[in-house]
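Example 3.2
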Amino acid sequence: MAEWLYEAGIGEARAALVDGDEILEARIEREGVGPRVGAIVAARLVEAGKAPMVALDWPGAPMASLTGLPSATAMGAALTVEITRMALRERGRDKPARARVAEAGAVIGDGPDLRARIAVTGVPVTELRATAPDRLEQAGWSELIDHIRIGHWPFAGGALWVDATPAMVLIDIDGEGDALALAKAGARSAAAVIRCCDIGGSIGIDFPSLPDRAGRQAIDAAVDAALPQPYERTAVNGFGLMQIIRRRDRPSLIEQVVLDPLATDAALLLRQAERAVGAGTLTLTARPAVIDHIAAHPAWIDMLQNRTGRPVQLTADAASKGTGHAQ
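Structure, written as tokens:
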């Protein structure tokens, strides 16, 4: 039976929809990433015209593009807006959040957090503790993060190469043998990755070329059977290319992990530290950038000390690779 596993980690909440030992969907929500979808925020108009922009009353005064602005609104006007898409990080550039003018009487407040969003799915939620068996790890959490980092997802008979470009997420199906069998297996695997990582926006899948129309229609059907709605797609063309469009309200797991490797490693190191066995000083060792990132959030260190009952020491090691270690 499927269930959500939820973990309120330090600096990062994480959740996985699991069925047996398989992760069907994975989500993370990091501290301090800006207002969530559905947040009602005070704002100030800083740019009018065809592309209005507002400065949000939020730490760091992030910008957001705005729709629904009355034409007579003056520059500098105070507004109340609703966030319709979170800010997005892309390779080489960032995209500001999107907002619309809030309905009259809307109350200032942040949008639903990850815990609230998985609760409304109707699937049972199990909250995990660091002192209990690590069910996330048993389901393959670390392997999932590794696949995302490398962009390589093996499946029986082949593998996917996944790359989040500024234009779209590209999924290349690689393998040997019968082209139709490979394409069908790749379609199922690609759909699983899209669902698991909540990939939105424009997605391109490069299938092995299939000369006959019946084969291409079989691939279309395989994608439709494996990928939950809503989405729009093209048919596979003669070059083996399919484009899928999905709603994009917040960063995908791939964008979060790949485009912010520092936050990824810091969160994984803190997760490891919560589960470290032993007594006395808890030492976290990692490359300097990771240690500096954690040190810049003293509340995380306090939380780790409170959860483990051990004093925490941060040690920068220039020779350390990846996440580092805690002991």
